[in-house]
Amino acid sequence: MAKQSIFGRISTLVKANINALLDSAEDPQKMLDQLVRDYTNSIADAEAAIAETIGNLRLLERDHQEDVQAAAEWGNKALAASRKADELRQAGNTADADKFDNLAKIALQRQISEENEAKAVEPTIASQTEVVAKLKDGLNGMKQKLEQLKSKRSELLARAKTAEAQNKVHDAVKSIDVLDPTSELGRFEDKVRRQEALAAGKQELAASSLDAQFESLEDVGELTEVEARLAALKTGGAPAQAAIDAPSAPYTP
């Protein structure tokens, strides 16, 4: 029964559709790992069972060969006894001739028995030979499936790592999206804009204050000139502007 279950497992595993199993699996990597373990263990069990089957087949073949050889030997003994009986009968020794004829008959009976045993085991040898051939093919198929599983596992792991790397890159890009106001970069950019606006406001305010200072200086200048002209009028002199506008006296050396 144990061997039958192993042989059935070989057939099931060889016929298994790996892609269909992976499609239906919640975690393909775990399923692949489990399948690799199952196949490895099943191959070891199958090799032991097949080795035992081959051993039994070789015993049957050996027994068959021994039966064939024994049948041939009994045939030779029957022939020898028959010839001896003929010689004795020709010599007039009928009693001894009959004795050797009886021995020949016994040898022939043993020959027939050995031949029957050899013939009886031949169908079993033929069927076992066919079974062993199929088992060897199934074992080779399992080994090929195992290599396919390992290859699929490597491919799946590589794809998983690639997908993981792509997701990390995508997440990293998303985290620094300049258009995302909630991102750190967006908040930093907003802070910079506010600082720039503050600096511009201070600059504008400073410029406005400087213009006012220069305007006050011009007002002071005008008041000073007014005071000077007023003083000139009080002393009976000409206004300062008139003095400025009057032509200069010719220079006399």
Written overview of the protein:
With 253 residues, the protein is mostly helical. The protein contains 6 helices and no strands. Helix 1 packs across helix 3. The C terminus is likely disordered.
Please render the helix and strand layout as text:
Layout: H1 2-15, H2 18-24, H3 28-90, H4 94-175, H5 184-234, H6 240-245
Helix pairs in contact: 1-3, 1-4, 2-3, 3-4
Pfam families: PspA_IM30 (PF04012)
InterPro entries: PspA_VIPP1
Protein name: PspA/IM30 family protein
Main attributes of the structure:
mainly alpha, 88% helix, 0% strand, disordered C terminus, PspA_VIPP1, coiled coil, PspA/IM30 family protein
Would you summarize the structure shown here?
This protein has six helices and no strands. It has helices at 2-15, 18-24, 28-90, 94-175, 184-234, 240-245.
Number of helices: 6
- Give the percentage of residues in beta strands: under 5%
Uncertain residue segments: 248-253
Report the major sheet.
none
